[in-house]
């Protein structure tokens, strides 16, 4: 079982490993730089080296680690300036991951801002194909969306079509977020519902393309398109469905990363413990 959480990027990079180990993680996700800014300081190579050494010395498999793109880039935007800036920032991020030995970079699919799904998908896939030319040992993971206004990729069929247009194929994979899938209309509340949803996922996107699973419960109801994560088992999805997903991921050796809230109800320590207990 490879399971962990999104780890805070505060402190030096090697402290990501400490924070992950402390929380009982055997997988984790990070932001390699501030997610709310266009600007990123150059990667400190000594710090990166210390991070890699600490990760190597830990029990965490490098292939169970990933980075998440910052929030500002929008790869589907119809606006040229923002589009170019987004591509540039993602290329930088791919290079950072490469230097850190992070094998996967998770990206959102962006907003077409009312220019239409077809336009959005065209922009998105040509941006991704441009980024994929970067010489780096990093696989880009497309994350399924919650189906908010002006988004694409919440429907598995459309998500699969987008994925199929990403070239070269060996540079791409997918990340499935349980909260996003659920609020996009894919029931995950019972064992039977999970089996049906995962079958549909396998037949469209393909389970073999799934490299990271985001395990989140949901504050929003089924089909609400509301992207609000909840603590494991305390949301609309619940223990039965999430437990079944954990089992399927373990069977297929797919690393699980939690992006659950940290509040008075629970922190990462407890959500990770809870998720492990569901297996
Ligand atoms: Zn996610
Ligand atoms: Zn989300």
From TrEMBL:
Zn(2+) 1 binds at residues 68, 108, 143. This is Probable endonuclease 4. It catalyses: Endonucleolytic cleavage to 5'-phosphooligonucleotide end-products. Zn(2+) 2 binds at residues 143, 177, 214, 259. SUPFAM superfamilies: Xylose isomerase-like. Gene3D superfamilies: Divalent-metal-dependent TIM barrel enzymes. InterPro entries: AP_endonuc_2, AP_endonuc_F2_Zn_BS, Xyl_isomerase-like_sf, Xyl_isomerase-like_TIM-brl. The gene is nfo. Belongs to the AP endonuclease 2 family. It holds the Pfam family AP_endonuc_2. One of its GO terms (biological process) is base-excision repair. Its EC number is 3.1.21.2.
